[in-house]
Amino acid sequence: MGYRPYYQAIPESSDLYRLMQTDQPAAKLMALFADKGSRPLDLLEGGEDEVDDLLEFAIEDDEVFASREDAEAAFQRLKEAIDRTVKAHRGLMDRCALLNKSQDELERLLVLHCSGLGDEESVEFLPALFGGSRPFAGPLFDPNEPDLDEDSAPEIAQFSPFWLVPSEDVKRGAGLLEPIAFSELASADESMSDATVEWLEDDYPRWRSLYLHAASRGEAIMVI
Questions:
Q1: pTM to 2 decimals?
Q2: For residue 163, what are the β-bridge partners?
């Protein structure tokens, strides 16, 4: 992977979760705005000028937005849903993490660690923690697609702007990650350079902590 994925906790009972399942334009904007700051739910982090620029960029997708007014209305729906959700779930905006293109290397180390313990079930489960278990609101982006299942997921995925780790998988992931501090993870490959260790040490603790905190609150995680 050559990109920097964001991970954002999201309560499955929240207004924002429901909006992402039912409002294609708002979901498109969520994906667009999340990539521009340090906190995916802080839509105004970059200031009003950035909001204006991103809405202008969004309306180039005329299959979703018929006009600037449509984009502005979707933005308002998204902002209001985020505001209600953040108000109802204290600290949610800060329950997020960014991996600085380190996801492949971290997954490799976790695979080595789990394989060393003979835990092949966890090895098979790990990709879901990094890339999501399923597309979030996948069929929403093509009403002609069939219901989501294992066979259709790769095709439906292209219509979803992000993926989801459901709350049950977040809980399982937290149980897997909780006993693995970074020092133990790094020992899975002692040939890593100091620069690589420093790079991963910046990312892994925040990502692991997100899973632990989200699991303690029964939340899912969006992968953007």
A1: 0.87
A2: 135, 223
